[in-house]
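Slides due. Your pick:
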Amino acid sequence: MKQIILGTAGHIDHGKTELIKYLTGIDTDRLKEEKERGITIELGFAFMKLENGINAGIIDVPGHEKFVKNMLAGAGGIDLVLLVIAADEGVMPQTREHLAICELLKIKTGLVVLTKKDLVDEEWVQMVSEDVTSFLKGTFLEGKPVIPVSSKTGEGIDTLKKAVEKLAEEVEAKKADGPFLYPIDRVFIMKGFGTVVTGTVVSGRVRVDDKIEVLPRGIEGKIRGIQVHNQSSQEAVAGQRAAINLQGIEKSDIRRGEVMGHAGKFKPSYILDASLNLLPDAPHPLKNRQRIRFHLGSCEIMARTVLLDKEELKPGEQSFVQIRLERPTVALTGDNYVIRSYSPMVTIGGGEILNVLTHKHKRFDQKTLDELKTLKEGSSEDVVESHVLSSGFKGIGLEDLFVILPLDKKGIEKAASQLISEKKIISIQDKKSFMHIDIFEKLKEKLKGELESFHKKSPLRPGMSKEELKSRVSMISDRAYSYMIERLKIEKVIVLDKDQIRLSSHKVTLGKEQEELKEKIEKEYLAAGSMPPNTEDLLKKFSINEKRFMELASLLSKEERLVKVKDRIFFHWESLSKAEKFLTDFLLKNKEITAAEFRDLLNISRKFAIPLLEYFDAKKITLRVGDKRVLRGQS
């Protein structure tokens, strides 16, 4: 069944709440202060089922200029707006500001309701209708119905309902297969149930027992219950108003302006790339880094706008900007936002979020501006390619693209497949993660360059450890690194020997002096038997530094002439073989051996006995049982 959100807009005391009450029988003014003052202060909520079967969740917004912040908290999810104008007053300041907000938020359709028809005569109604029609020229409400009604007598209400039904049929249904996102606009405690939040599901769906996360603070909980239109439901989907009962989260943990999504799906951001339109009637130009009030969903956050292509933005002009927030929030690419001046608090502009996973840009950088233009105007393939490119050495996953882009999974998969076939991006994880081909080539050259530099500085070392090579490439993900190593192996650019990586072209070659020194070191170990020489003594004896010694010892290990038993402790392979035979012969005869007995068996110090026993344990020759060793598999 189709779901839409119908919202009111308009000046204070123009009859928005009375109209909703007449239409639904629900009084949306619930606060004591609202009753006493006779004005709407907070968002009000109602619902009705239209004659054509469409369910309409209703948001009634306050009309006073002091409460525009509250109005904005509910306006983001509206599909169809009723711009309410009192017939006895006509267009007023908040009529203009509310309409401007609706335009900035890209609300696509609606109509005008001329309320309080019973207070004026027909001639006056006609005159106000003509004035309103003129006022609406150039806006999304141009040509839409202007319907006079009276919430006292009911005159015109049937005509209004029919017009709403017709427009509701034209509203494009929200897709429920996106990631679940739910801006919170109200938090309260319900006796016997605990914490309850309300909001409009702007994307995806959520079900009872789903694990959710309240962001940006990352507080996790569980869905205990859901109500849609005051009826219990097992799920809430995009386009519905829903009250959600939370388990594991206290009321004090949540506030309006935060968002709820499935646990682990979203990453809050302090920086958003966006397009910005400054309203033609904005009182002043917008300066670079000017402090503003940023409104997105139900949140208001102080922020600064960094103009990327202008020194200042004049009323009526557009710009690409970075919005640098004073606290993080969660947004989706394609979301529409509004900005208001810091003081006085007046709506001055708004635009579209283009990138939610971004970084600080240099101003007037043409490459950045071209990328943002692509994100704003490009095809699905262009947008996916741009995000893959900007992900750099990390690459980007299908799930990440699904969360940040206003496309369903099939759309993203189709775009990615097309880009792969055009050899613009490559799949680095079975079409679940992607890297741009330009980045792939840069990364390949980077890894080759690091290995070349390593071989040049350490020509005697057979290779670099995988982890050391990875540490030399900043901002690379594990999946991207594993993919690159495998590709370089397949392309025979590198050789991987256990944990050591070397270029295929690298060969360890020793000069005559180095070869002689290597042989001398081997002889020292061979002569020492089971009591290998002290490293410090060898450094002094041969007048070499530790780095050079370790390179030669590692080379001897690779040639299987020395065996590294522990850090800085090497044994000649012949001595180690003899030690192993002594040990196995002893155990075959005596079944078990202590460390002290092993020490005496080889006539060595504990310094070497313990590392040797641990080495034989690791080689699965022996098994430690308490403080003794036995042969593995020995019955």
Summary: The chain has five domains: 3-170, 181-261, 269-368, 408-501, 510-635. The mean pLDDT is 91. The radius of gyration is 36 Å. Residues 3-170 form a domain with the Rossmann fold fold (CATH 3.40.50.300).
